[in-house]
Amino acid sequence: MTPTLSAKAVRKVDADELATYREVVRSGLADGDGKASPLHAFVLASPVIDESVGMIGAATADGSPLGRVHLSQEIHVRRAIRPDEPVTVALDVVGTRKSLKGVQVAMKVALLGEDGEQFAELITGAMLVGAVTPDTFGQLPPHPGKGSTAEPTVVTRSIARETVTKYAYASGDLNPIHLDDNAAVQAGFENGVIAHGMSVLAVVTEEVIDRYAGGDADRVKSIGARFSSAVSPETPLEIVLQQDEKFVRFSCKTPTGPALKSGWVELGE
C-alpha cells in the first residue's frame, strides 16, 4: 500500500499566543523586542506534523503505541508569523528509512501566508520507534550543520521545572513526559520530567538574538540542530556559540552528554 505523502491545513495564532510563547522561551532574560519567535513556525505546524504518522500508515508489529523521537529540525523564515493571519500549512513526507529501531521519517512543511506566498519552510527528522511500516521510500535530506573553528563564547543556562510546564501549554505539546514524573519514568527517563527539545533550541536561539542580532528576532533567517539526548529541568546547559560571518554555530551539552549537535542560527541584516 502506497502511503499518502501530503497533507494541508489552515491554522492561525493570535497576538497573545505569540507573546506568551516568546515570554516563556525568554525566561530568565530581559524582555524581548515584542516580535514573534522564529520557532513559532514549528509550533504552528506541529499538529500537522504529528498527524503525519497516521498519514503514512506507520504501525508496530503488535499494534502497540509508537514511540516518537525528534531527531533534527530546520526552520527557514522569510518573515515572522502575523497575528490572526490564516496560514496554510502544507506538509510533504519526502522519505522514510526502515532501521532496527523503527522507521526514520523526513518531512518538509511550507507555510503560506494569506496572500499565498511562502514565508517559511520546516524540515523535520523523526524516528518512529518500533514501527515496522511503511517500507523505505524517497530520500532523507542531509543535515547541513557543521562545526566551526571560530573563537567560542560559552554560556551556561538552565530550564526551570516551572518553565517546562509553561512551555508545554504555550507550545501545545502536552506529552505527559513533559508534565508528569511517573509518565516520564515509565517512558525511560529515570529522573522524571524532561524539557521539550524545541524549548532547548529556543533558549539557544534567544541567546544568539541577544548577543549577535542586537535583540532583533526578525534578523533570524534560519535555525537548525540535531537533538541528541534529553534535558532535565534545572540541569546546567553549557552552550558554545561560534560566529562564522552570517552564521552562529552552536552546540549544547549537559553534565551527562550532548543535548544539541551541529546547530546554527543564520542572521540577516
- Low-confidence runs of at least 5 consecutive residues: none
Our estimate of the beta-strand percent is 35-45%
Tell me the distance between the termini.
Answer: 48 Å
Helix and strand run: EHHEEEEEEEEHHHEEEE
Tell me, what's the shape?
globular
The total strand number stands at 13
Largest sheet: 11 strands, antiparallel
How many H/I helices? Answer: 5
Whole-number mean pLDDT: 94
Assign the CATH topology.
Answer: Thiol Ester Dehydrase, Chain A
Q: What is the CATH top level name?
A: Alpha Beta
What share of residues is helical? Answer: 10-25%
Oligomer: single chain
Rg: 18 Å
Number of individual domains: 1
Describe the structure.
- By secondary structure, this protein is an alpha+beta fold.
- It has a single domain, classed as Hotdog Thioesterase (Thiol Ester Dehydrase, Chain A, Roll).
- 22% of the residues lie in helices and 37% in strands.
- It has 5 helices and 13 strands.
- Strands 1, 3, 4, 5, 6, 8, 9, 10, 11, 12 and 13 form an 11-stranded antiparallel beta sheet that branches. The protein has a two-stranded antiparallel ribbon with strand order 2-7.
- A hairpin with a 2-residue loop joins strand 11 (237-244) and strand 12.
- Helix 1 packs antiparallel against helix 3.
- Belongs to the enoyl-CoA hydratase/isomerase family.
- It holds the Pfam family MaoC_dehydratas.
- It comes from Kibdelosporangium phytohabitans.
- Residues 155-246 form the MaoC-like domain.
